[in-house]
Amino acid sequence: MRIKINILLILLTLSMTSFAKGKVIDEVIWIVGDEAVLKSEVETEILRMKYEKQNIEGDPYCVIPEQLALQKLFIAQAKIDSVTVSESAVEQQVDGRIKFFIQRIGSKEKVEEYFNKSIDGIKDEMKRTVHDQLLVQEMQATITGAHKVTPAEVKEYYSKLPKDSIPTIPEQVEVQIISLTPEITPAEIERIKSQLRDIKEKVESGESQFSTMAILYSEDKGSAMQGGELGFMTRGKLVPEFANVAFSLYDPKKVSRIVESEFGYHIIQLIERKNDQINCRHILMIPKIEPAKKREALEKLDSIADAIRSEDITWGEAALKYSVDKETRENNGLMINMENLSNKFQIQQLPADIAKVVYTMSIGEISKPFLYTNEAGKEMVCIVRLKSKVKAHKANPDDDFQQLKELVSNRQNKDLIEKWIKERQAEMYIHINPEYRDCKFQYPGWIKE
Fold it and tell me: In this structure, how many other beta carbons lie within 10 angstroms of the beta carbon of residue 100?
């Protein structure tokens, strides 16, 4: 029942709203509390669903207004209960969507041409939509937040499931990793720093624009297309080394000193400050590793793997002593699945380079050393060990409690929200234009007379 934020919905809404408003005389067709559903909103949503070739079960002029009225019901109650979303959360979501559009369409200029609006104009239109969607999510979280699923409820749910309805759990693996960073030569570090110093000098002298140099040279592919712009960020959203320097900048004409982080080497330019957030540009350069240094790291890991196989050292001891992976080294090298914060992965959830190796391994087997690129874009070498593998199977409470608990939680949250909707329909002021009153609604409580 949680209403998901749909990036494509926002994209299509922005491009279709002008069309819809130009074709109908706008009017209020439904009032929920102090919130109004407009005819143009219904037309825009119907256009979007047709564009996406989505099937609408029932009359769209009944189904869509009710869906919009449900959103208004959550928003109206959120205002009564003083449930809010922060401006910074909205800004971050909007900036993320703008980045997505730029990546999909090709450039900032093409996005502006597509919508026939400036980026600032697109952001202004988008903020209301994003704010409302976040507010709906926050209100739903308030409704369901206090409820906790007990083990007894999970067991009862499982016991009542028909055999053909028991979900299948895909094959899962637990993987241990020991990773090393091949040595980077001083000459390569100096080459990178010299190039960044040269860019800094050209920008501060007015010879070049920072955004142009970011497009040409930055190795952060996500921001390079946007001239190095990151969007508004709080300090906590940035790695400490970067944040310390970025938040010390006050003059947009100046470029920071060179900053080293886990991603590589950066220079930064301030764009704007807003409360506890900053928007800045950066150029990232990642040092290249010489083949000889890669071979040295691979040979070292080969020796470590041999020592583990011969039981001269345990895997956990080796991970703690040698691995540079801060997230896993103190946990026997066990990789963490960031999607659910467990140690279990479906093969496709593993990084691609690691998945290829693990796919053919047996339980307890230690791989040969191999190269891979980590999430920060840096070349690493590693060995992995397949700790466990659970084949695809029908769920059971002993082995799959968390997955079953999530199913129960989702079902109960849906029930809580549906109960809440029916109660609020009875309490909230609602007015529907006569032409919509004969609709067959999912929630009949809209019609009170």
Answer: 14
- Given a contact cutoff of 8 angstroms between Cβ atoms, the answer to whether 76 and 34 are in contact is yes
Helix axes 210-217, 186-204, angle to 10 degrees: 150
- Residue 393 DSSP label: E
- Establish how many alpha carbons lie within 13 A of residue 161's alpha carbon, considering only the half-sphere containing its beta carbon: 19
Residue 94 token pair: 């909007």
Spatial contact of 222 and 102, defined as CB atoms under 8 Å apart? no
Q: How many CB atoms lie within 10 A of CB 224?
A: 20
Neighbours of 62 (CB within 10 A): 16
Burial class (CB in 10 A: 0-12, 13-18, 19+), 250: exposed
Contact 143, 420 (CB under 8 A): yes
Tell me, what DSSP letter sits at residue 274? Answer: E
Residues sharing a CB contact under 8 Å with residue 142, sequence separation 6 or more, in sequence order: 78, 81, 83
Contacts 24+ apart (CB under 8 A), 204-213: 204/253, 204/254, 204/255, 210/255, 210/269, 210/281, 210/283, 211/281, 213/283
* Percent of the chain whose pLDDT exceeds 70: 94
Residues 6+ apart with CB under 8 A from 224: 214, 215, 218
CA distance 329 to 319: 5
- Please give the Cα distance from 7 to 289 (Å, whole number): 38
pLDDT in tens, 348-362: 999 999 999 999 999
pLDDT digits (tens, 9 = 90+) for 55-93: 888 899 999 999 999 999 999 999 999 999 888 788 888
Q: Give the containing element (helix H, strand E) for 259.
A: strand 259-261
Q: Is the dihedral of CA 419, 423, 426, 428 positive or negative?
A: negative
pTM score over 0.70 = no
Residue 21: its pLDDT value, please? 43
CB neighbourhood size of 191 (10 A) = 14
User: Percentage helix, strand, coil, to 5, in the chain?
Assistant: 50, 15, 35
Q: What is the distance between the alpha carbons of residues 208 and 40, in angstroms, rounded to a whole number?
A: 46
Residues 381 and 298: their CA atoms lie apart, in Å, by: 6
